[in-house]
Amino acid sequence: LAQFNARYARQLSWSLEALDRLVDYPWPGNIRELINLVERMVVTCEGDSIGLFDLPTEVRQASEAVGDDAQIPLRKRVELLEREAIRAALLQHKTTREAARALGISQATVVQKMKKWDHTD
């Protein structure tokens, strides 16, 4: 989100409801689908926050088809989204420094999170 906010001179954030649905959605198109959706949200959202009803119908309705996964705690959901965002930034930018800059976080944060994930995977 930070990358597209910078590209389009926006300051959008996610509502908790929208964030929950992003986590629940299975992402059949993998990370490319997520990246395309985030960019589309930044371009089309009229407010300051991307809300539940800004999301495409298939993403909004994702949690209805999800069983026990809908019970994932918020911290875990945020961690999963962070992981996907960092991976996407690394794929696009190739270095941790460039990825961190695109995400609006420090390089140390990117490296620290990657090390943490290496130990928990």
Question: Could you characterize the architecture of this molecule?
Answer:
The chain is globular, with a radius of gyration of 14 Å. The protein has one domain. The chain has helices at residues 2-7, 16-24, 30-44, 57-60, 62-65, 74-93, 96-103, 107-120, and strands spanning 13-14, 49-50. The chain is mainly alpha-helical and 121 residues long.
TL;DR?
This protein has 121 residues and is mainly α.
Q: What would the average pLDDT be, to the nearest integer?
A: 83
Which structural class matches the secondary elements? mainly alpha
How many domains, in number, for the residues?
1
One letter per element, helices H and strands E, the order comes to HEHHEHHHHH
Shape: globular
From the N-terminal CA to the C-terminal CA, the straight-line distance is 25 Å
How many E-type strands?
2
The helix count comes to 8
**Beta-strand content:** under 5%
User: What integer value in Å does the Rg equal?
Assistant: 14 Å
Largest sheet: 2 strands, parallel
Strand order of the largest sheet: 1-2
The helix fraction, in percent, is: 55-70%
Low-confidence stretches: none
